[in-house]
Amino acid sequence: MILSCGEALVDMLPRRTEAGEDAFAPCPGGAVFNTAVALGRLGVPAGFLSGLSTDLFGQMLAGALDASGVDAALCLRSVRPTTLAFVTLEGGQPRYAFYDENTAGRMIRAADLPALPETVVALFFGGISLMVEPAGAAYQALMEREAGSGRVMMLDPNIRPSFIADEAAYRARIARMIALADIVKLSDEDLRWLEGRRGITGGAEAVLAKGPKVVFVTEGAAGAHAFTAARSVFVPARRVEVVDTVGAGDTFNAGVLAALHRAGALTRAGVAALSDDTLRAALALGIRAAAVTVSRAGANPPWAKELS
User: Could you tell me the pTM of the whole model?
Assistant: First the structure.
C-alpha cells in the first residue's frame, strides 16, 4: 500500500448561480488527499493518514476516500472542524484563502501517530500540512521515524508562500525532509523558491545533492523532467483544453507512483536504479493523468479505465 500522509480539506470552488450571483461549491480536496484519491482511482493499493473531522465536511471527505478505493483506517477522527480553502481563479490558476485554525487536520501531534502495518511499502508527504503546527512537526516526525524502515519516501512540498508563517522554520523542515526522501517532486515555481534562479537542471542537481535518488520537476504546459545522478529525461505535456489546474500536480504525483509500482520499482533499491525507460513511463503516466484533471473543474483525477 502507498500511504499518503497530510491534509484533507474542502475546496470551496467558485461558481455562478443561474441568477448570476457568485457562489462557492464544496468539493473534497487538499494536495495529499488528492494524491491518495488519484492513486486509488488508478487501481493502486492506496491508504490515507490525516486528521479527519466527524463534521459534515469530514463525512464528505471520508465518503470520497471510500468511493475511490482508498483505505482510511489510519485516519485520526475528531470533533474539530474541517479545514476550508476558498479558491479563486486568475487566468485558470488557483489562488487560495485557507481557514485552518484548530482544525482536525492541523491539530494532530506526533504522539497521535499510529504504528504502520507491514503492507505499507511507500509513504507520500507534502502540502500545507507541512507549513502549520503541530501537524507539520507530526509529519516530519513520522518521516524521521520511518526513514530506517526500508519504505520508499516521496515528498512534494507544494509550496504556498502566502501560507508560511515562519519561513526559516519551514525551510529547515523541508531541507530535513528532502534529505530523508528517496523521491522529490517540485513544480518549477517550487524549485525556484527553494534554490533560486539556477534553472531547472541546476536547481534539480542541487536538490539531488541533498540526498534524494530522483527529482521530478513539472513545468506546467511545457511538460515534466526527471533527474537522477546518472540521467535526465523530459516528456512534453499533452495539449488539452484547460478548465483549471486544481489538483494537477497531485494527480501527477499519483501517476508517477503508480507507474513505479507497476514496474516493480517502488523499493529503495529500485528507486536508486531507475532506467530511462522507467523514468519516461513514470513521467508519461503522470502527465497523462494530470491532463485529464486539468480538463475538468476542480480536483477530479481520472480512473484507470479513462486512461486505457
Answer: 0.95
